[in-house]
Design brief:
By secondary structure, this protein is α/β, with parallel strands linked by helices. The chain is about 35% helix and about 20% strand. Strands 3-2-1-4-5 form a five-stranded mixed beta sheet, sandwiched between helices. The protein is globular and about 45 Å long. The two termini are about 25 Å apart.
Length: about 190
């Protein structure tokens, strides 16, 4: 199977923030899809958290306790998460956070994983920053239709998942990988 035939699922979570004595938990999830250059919506929703959203987290993503009060729990979202990710290569920018939140579903079997942070560092090592927003801006991708559309904003799970797929699509095009084996996208540091 080639990259052009591979279905990718970009995933992003936003968290409630950690505090002394408690770990971070998701307050928003989004999964969007990329197949042969076309990005399409999948799942995008707030997630009810057991703890209040910290002040620091609110400053980053703007999600408040009121916004998540009636949202489903991550466990309630499991069937939809599973349906949107099964059979896909999973894409995230700095995938460790997404992997950590998905540990709520042991033995989920999602993958293989493509980390666009790792790929961006390998393909564009001289960029001044490899944060998702900085890479998108440095590469001139902020004009892509999926990014310049109404409602796009950084630190929104759907927007960040879309941006990860826009970056992946750009790397595939830049490196002429459309007909390559998708394994090449699993960049590993030597």
């Amino acid at each position: 199977m080639s990259i052009a035939e591979t279905r990718f699922a970009g995933i992003d979570f936003e968290g409630a923030g950690s505090a002394p004595g408690r770990s971070d938990e998701p307050v928003q999830i989004a999964v969007v899809h990329l197949l042969d250059g076309e990005i399409t919506d999948g799942l995008s929703t707030y997630v009810c958290a057991n703890n209040p959203v910290t002040w620091a987290a609110r400053k980053v993503h703007g999600i408040t306790d009121d916004m998540i009060a009636n949202a489903p729990s991550l466990t309630e979202l499991w069937p939809e998460v599973r349906d949107n990710m099964t059979g896909c290569w999973i894409v995230a920018h700095g995938a460790a956070t997404e992997k950590r939140f998905l540990r709520a579903f042991p033995f989920h079997g999602f993958g293989p994983w493509v980390d666009t942070l790792s790929l961006a560092r390998a393909v564009f090592p001289s960029l001044p920053s490899h944060s998702l927003g900085a890479v998108i801006e440095s590469l001139g991708l902020q004009g892509q239709p999926e990014i310049c559309c109404e409602g796009f904003r950084w630190h929104d799970a759907r927007s960040d998942a879309i941006a990860s797929l826009v970056l992946l699509r750009h790397i595939i095009a830049t490196c002429n990988l459309r007909h390559a084996d998708p394994q090449i996208l699993q960049h590993r540091k030597a």
